[in-house]
């Protein structure tokens, strides 16, 4: 079986209200660019609603559609990895299930890839409709601090919505890490990567599956995965504290020698509290790296598939 020209990979968690509209819009956009040589790979990331039943029904009706059911909720980045591992297209589109990323951008992305001979066309968010001021400002701050910290250039205001060539995807899939920050990993592989600007729409239905806790985790994965600056920062704090403590020791010694060393509960408390806080902070930071090292060292599989529904469930790379 020859591989299809395009795979559209979509991680889904509690997206039953979006699936119908999603599939029809993705189908329309894909047909427009590659005729019938495409596949849509839906990954059910342990949804608690009727998403999986709906995916099965959709896959039964449409032979372009393949649905993968993960054994539980593995998280957005791992669900996406599962879909990417199992898709077979020559080009791969990654898109969210909630239609915040418009499938209608696909023809423009394809054209851009051809025109510039690029391996990756990543979509940069110009406006973000329907998202809270907190989400928008925290995202903005996050992308900017990350690009300061990271050792490689990670494009700002860019999610996972992107079109990739097969060789770029194969390079991405050769990175084995557990803590996956895919938009950073794609930047890391290199090749020619070009932006395309779009306006991010509101969610079609349902609500965000990225509460603050998941956002913080993704941010920590991003920073620890792409920068050791926090560790350097820790040793810099340490050096400054050593310098400060030498001055303090001299001051204390002078006070003791001149016999005037009594008062000073306030300053003592200040030193104890500040030092304690700094130490805990630095330890926590080291712990973030250490914890990830521990998780990586277990070398567990990234995800577990429980079943696959749809035409390709035995063809090509699917089903292995
Ligand atoms: N998602 C997932 N697993 C999760 C959380 C989210 O597969 O544990 C999917 C979700 O269905 C959507 C994409 O990841 O397709 C982005 O999630 P969401 O739209 O909730 O995030 P936001 O756009 O609000 O940042
Ligand atoms: Mg969304």
From TrEMBL:
Which EC numbers does the record give? 2.4.-.-
Q: Does the keyword Membrane apply?
A: yes
Where, by residue number, does the polypeptide cross the bilayer?
237-259, 265-290
List, alphabetically, the InterPro entries matched. Glyco_trans_2-like, Glycosyltransferase_2, Nucleotide-diphossugar_trans
Molecular function terms from GO:
glycosyltransferase activity
Stretches assigned to the Glycosyltransferase 2-like domain: 7-172
Query: Its topology with respect to the membrane?
Result: Multi-pass membrane protein
* Keyword Membrane on entry: yes
Keywords, sorted A to Z: Glycosyltransferase, Membrane, Transferase, Transmembrane, Transmembrane helix
> In which compartments does the protein localize?
Membrane
PANTHER family given in the database record: PROPHAGE BACTOPRENOL GLUCOSYL TRANSFERASE HOMOLOG, UNDECAPRENYL-PHOSPHATE 4-DEOXY-4-FORMAMIDO-L-ARABINOSE TRANSFERASE-RELATED
Q: What protein is this chain from?
A: Glycosyltransferase family 2 protein
State the organism of origin. Sphingosinicella rhizophila
The top of its lineage is: Bacteria, Pseudomonadati, Pseudomonadota, Alphaproteobacteria, Sphingomonadales
């Amino acid at each position: 079986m020859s591989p299809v020209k395009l795979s559209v990979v979509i991680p889904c968690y509690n997206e039953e209200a979006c699936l119908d509209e999603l599939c029809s819009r993705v189908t329309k956009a894909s047909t427009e660019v590659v005729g019938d040589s495409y596949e849509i790979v839906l990954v059910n990331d342990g949804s608690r609603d009727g998403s999986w039943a709906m995916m099965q029904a959709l896959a039964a009706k449409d032979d372009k559609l393949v649905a993968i059911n993960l054994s539980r909720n593995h998280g957005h980045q791992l669900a996406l990895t599962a879909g990417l591992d199992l898709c077979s297209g020559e080009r791969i589109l990654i898109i969210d299930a909630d239609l915040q990323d418009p499938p209608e951008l696909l023809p423009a992305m394809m054209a851009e890839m051809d025109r510039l001979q690029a391996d990756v066309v990543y979509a940069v968010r110009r406006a973000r409709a329907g998202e809270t001021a907190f989400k928008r400002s925290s995202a903005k701050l996050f992308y900017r601090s990350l690009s300061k910290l990271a050792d490689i250039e990670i494009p700002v205001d860019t999610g996972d919505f992107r079109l990739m060539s097969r060789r770029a995807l194969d390079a991405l899939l050769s990175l084995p890490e557990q803590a996956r920050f895919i938009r950073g990993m794609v930047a890391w592989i290199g090749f020619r990567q070009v932006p395309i600007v779009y306006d991010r729409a509101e969610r079609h239905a349902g609500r965000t599956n990225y509460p603050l806790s998941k956002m913080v985790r993704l941010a920590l994965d991003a920073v620890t995965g792409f920068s050791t600056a926090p560790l350097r920062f820790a040793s810099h704090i340490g050096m400054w504290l050593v310098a400060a403590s030498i001055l303090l020791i001299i001051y204390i010694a002078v006070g003791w020698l001149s016999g005037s060393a009594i008062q000073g509960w306030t300053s003592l408390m200040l030193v104890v509290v500040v030092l304690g806080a700094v130490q805990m902070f630095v330890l926590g930071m080291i712990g973030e790296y250490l914890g990830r090292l521990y998780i990586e060292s277990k070398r567990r599989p990234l995800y577990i598939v429980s079943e696959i529904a749809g035409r390709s469930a035995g063809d090509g790379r699917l089903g292995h």
